[in-house]
Amino acid sequence: MTHEARTAGDGLDYLPLPPGPTVALLQLPEPLGAWFAQRFGEPTAAQRLAWPALSAGRNLLLAAPTGSGKTLAAFLPIFAGLFEEPFGRSVQCLYLTPLKALANDAHRNLTDHLQDLQTFLLPGSVLPRVGLRTGDSSAHSRQELRRQPPDILITTPESLALLLSHAFSAELFAGLRYLVLDELHALAPNKRGADLALSLERLDALTGQRLQRIGLSATSAPLDEAARFLVGTGRPCAMAHVAESAPLELTVEPLPETGGFLERLARRLEPELRANRTTLVFTNVRSLAERLSWALRQRYPDLADAIAVHHSALAAGRRAEIECDLKTGRLRAVVSSTSLELGIDIGPVDGVVLVHPPGDVVRLLQRVGRAGHGPGRPRRGLVLTASAAELLEATVTAAGGRSAECEPLRVPRHPLDVLCQQLLGMAAQRPWSADEAFELVRRAYPYRDLARDDLDGCLDYLSGRRRNGEGWLPARLSWSGDEFALVDARTARLVRRNLGTIIADEPRPVMVDDGSAPAAEDEFPDSGLHLVGHVDEPFADRLNPGDRFLLDGRCLEYRGADGCSLLATEVCGWPAVPVWNGEGWPLSAELARRLFLLRMRASDALRDGPEALAALLRREYELNGPAVDILVRHFQRQECVSEVPDAATCLVEVVAEEAGGGHYVHTPLNRKGNDALARVLVRRLARAGRRVAASVVADLGFAVFPVDGPLGTPEEFRRLLSADQFEQNLDAALLDSDALRQRFRRAALTGLMLLRNPAGRRRKVGGRDWAERRLFEQVREQDPAFVLLRQALAEVRADCCDAATGLAYLGELPDMQVRFRYLPQVSPFAEGWTQQATGPAEAFDSPAEALQRLHRTLSGGVVDHAG
Amino acid sequence: MRVNAEWLLTAERAAVHLPTATAVIADLHLGYELARQCGGEAVPLRTPEEVLAPLGRLALRHHVERLVIAGDLFEAGPSEEVLSAFLHGLRGLSLEMVGIVPGNHDRDLSPASHLLPVVEEGVRLGDWRVLHGHGRLGRDRVVLGHIHPCLTWARRRTAPCYLIGPRRLVLPAFSADARGVNVLRDRRWRSFRCGVIAGEDVLDFGPVGTLAARLRRARA
Lengths: 867, 220
Hints:
Chain A has 867 residues and is of the alpha/beta class. Chain A is 43% helix and 16% strand. In chain A, the strands form five sheets. A nine-stranded mixed sheet of chain A has the order 1-2-9-3-8-7-4-6-5, with helices on both faces. Chain A has a six-stranded parallel sheet with strand order 10-15-14-11-13-12, sandwiched between helices. In chain A, strands 20-19-23-22-21 form a five-stranded mixed sheet.
């Protein structure tokens, strides 16, 4: 808990010590105080901190662990406010959650609390009405919302954006007084958050800027960044942080060494499943969640019905069913990719198991925090690792978790594709002048430093013209004087159909004929087909009739496609596993640095003998048993084959051709930082006439594979990695990259240049990658300064590679020694790099060159030139 | 790449019937961007010159005089705007369009029949018949489109290709907008040879049935 009153500037204040329970309860008018005292006893620290600040009408960011009573901390002062002033004809309080499942949970909880409260009210008192509006809401309930607005409306950012695009939103939100943003940490660091920040400013404008904003968050640092995200620029906010009080019991353990991976995993999990009432298993990726739950069911048939898989590619109905079974104790284990990280109410969980390290400390704490809900009950977490490198990674992650050193929250800087979508939503609501829009947009924290030129660029695109005024695209906006609006009602309908497209992969639904009753959300409710979930389009495209794959822990056989849907039947047999996008978890920059330092300390200790290293690992990293032995052996092998890199040296391991060749460059950077270095190195090599077959990027290093022999001397290598012209070279390399094309497609979908739900038929001929292949080239040629292209480039610069960190490292290189070590084999530290790399390494020759080369390699091909 | 003495498969995605100096192309999907615009998307249009540029190269390099279109000239039926731009572009290339077989995307070509030589039953070239490929093919030797064959390798890389069988010659889509369908994923083509377009060349990659295994071996 924060014990002293401090200020972070800009009107942000940390709250001082919370008042005692009695004083805190006095903040609540009767009968709220009496109801609370009777039902819950003493208020929690979070509630004691929040109530005085909220009762005084202040904005508040409350960061507190799950189970600390955040919901009532926010809502009791709101109930008090609602009772004090009579309810109006519009929504009084808006409660925003990042997931539909959380919105449903919140609706249930608030309704239960209010009904319970009724027994304490005077007869004839009216309770505030609670309404729910999500993508699943029926047409009837949407109409009802408009006709008779609830006092408290629970919704998601996407549904809010849609509501705001209607003219009636002015009336609906005219009397809005309170805004509660739940799970703020899940939104602030991404584009959905940027979209929401703009929606909040639009709401604020509708209410005459008198909205009280309340943000609820898990532990996030720095707190003031989260607070600024909540309130926007120039508004005051109180901040309160309640530390986790439940003891943390973290164990890092290597999997048994004999047997296949799934078998070892299943064997190790058995005692956990049998000892705990409920176990949550996180796997990082959905494919492993599917395979593992399937393997567990096969291996332990007595538990088969009590094991389920949960990830966001499953149908919403199926997910809800699993959450309900989990809550009511019908399930012994749920294997989840990441989808149960957020605070969906899942009841008591005894143990959390993480298969593979989670990549950062925030995620580790979030997952382990799902265990031991309840005062004094420990948060028990077990991290299982499959290799020495993973064990090392898990060790520093766990150490970071024990000392609660979370990665800093990073709010994205003015994503222009999101802004384009919002501008269309704004224009759908009413006409705006560019000046008025600019002023509003800049009040949202992610857009605080948006340049006027960027806004004008967005408006030009939406008006169908280039920056020089020439028309080149169909216009969505029309201008009357200095005000813009949508061109017609059809455009408004299309915009509304596509608002909320932020995550831009296009999963394909999988329908199974399993004889069960179809759910309401099913695409073909009369057909007996049942929606089980989604798979990524590239995976779907590779399927042939008869192919088998896993989904929902079941083995399905693909029968054929029907429109966009895949039709399948459940069978017994050996399946393949679908691939979903966004599965890799690279280390955070902070953890990469800590891991590098741990290696250096371990290397120092090893000089005094293996026992000294073992003692260090036991003492400072709380490891024991086989974990210690594996790491000691790992370091001994590295020292024997090569050396442990230190901060004063850039170690380059040059591996003999017979062992695959390649230059393995060790750095203290995470994958993103290394990506920047590798791209620049490959580009400079190409300019020097050297060809590179492939490059591989990993945490703590990267490898390049030159076609024609080693790269020369360390001095030449140093020149190739000079900081001079680094950013220009990186930009040039990125302009030719597949990553940029993919980002552009996403930006085009988010910026509504392309529509996920177009009018009429889908144009299938171009396929999913049409924007990457064709539109990208066309746009780059016709308008190189196009806003969505610039957005894609900014994203690649920031997300795929970390140019700033890469450049900072190169700045230090002149003072470091560059050491080439010629090795007969890949060193233990670099062994995992090729497996760790996500997706195919970027290829560096043109498709025609690659085909010619392939053709020469294939036997039996006869080259016949047509021209 | 030559097939028998009759056909020259070109990198411009056209098969040239040498005895009659006639190029056959399929699946132009003209007006693709316009169709996307009609669906509400804000994409730029391509100029007819850009779309027809490969035909100009074809006429120059292979001395082609006549042109047959094996269906799907249009993405979404014959719009006046798209048709007149196409005919205008074609006039500049001194190519005589001798036949067009309707494809499934062409919908009803009758409004444009005074401008286009529509041949519903297919165009004869020697003992070959040119069809689109979405209906029954019969026992004739047939040149067809519709399939959009391509070869996908190394997960993401693709190149358009021809499929060559004793009684069938499948053309790649002429439209660069078409994504293509990986021939390795369709058992129908196992006995066909695969002629892959690589830059300026068409390379014979041999039978499709063994190609996947040969690619795997080559990678290893």
